[in-house]
Amino acid sequence: MADPSGGPRTPWPLRAAALALVCGLGAPTAGLANPFLDKCLKAEATSSELAGACQTALNQGGVSGRTAAAAWTNYGVALSEMGRDGDAIGAYDRAQQEDSALPAIYVNRALAYSRRGRTAEALADWGRAIQLEPSSAEPLVGRATLQLQRGDASGALSDLDRAVQLAPSNPDAHYNRGVALAALGRLSEAASAFGRVLHFDPSDAAAHLQRGVALAKAGDTAGGIADLDAAVRLSPSWAAAWATRGQLRERAGQGEQAAQDYRRAFELGYQAPWLNQKIEALGG
Prior knowledge:
284 residues
């Protein structure tokens, strides 16, 4: 069957915009003493503006402890958003030197490590973030995402089970839990997990597609096609949705409709040897 999604949903750098409150930096005097620090900690600017504000604030000096750690963290986030993960890791290292108990350091450095293929270091940082924030679902989802990418569906599921207990309304936790369950062959449970995503966002085309694939593999081809109908309706330019629905329709004996879907997937640029063979068999 066509690869519909490209894998689990991956987090992106998390701006530490709330750190001002955590660090007690909400007082106006902090901004008056160093307006660049105020802009850095609010983390509302564009990536380049945020990087400039944080760098200037830190260069001006007079910032230490958790305040400095927050500034270095947001500087690293801005660098990561600009595609400079190597420099970002250096910024996160400086943040750790200032305050090693700030969870945002490890969350964002883990993401940067992952993008650079440094898996062992990423897993260690996710573990540290989980230790520092045991009641937060986000680090668990982050570590599970990396585990899924490594093919460790069982490890990922353990983290995601905890994540959905901590944050029952977190759609990414339910989505990635569905990916893990599907990888383990627990298809009915996977369909239910994707159903939870759709409970929170009925317009999530990827969740419709994933649930449709799980249902079809579990023997409910009609239910799978219905979900793929929704995926195509919600995301009509998504080639993988057309290709996947074509496969389900062909399985259901709907040859003419399947051919239409295959042609549309091909027109939208879906690349796969099996689809090329289908198109050739259909006469181009």
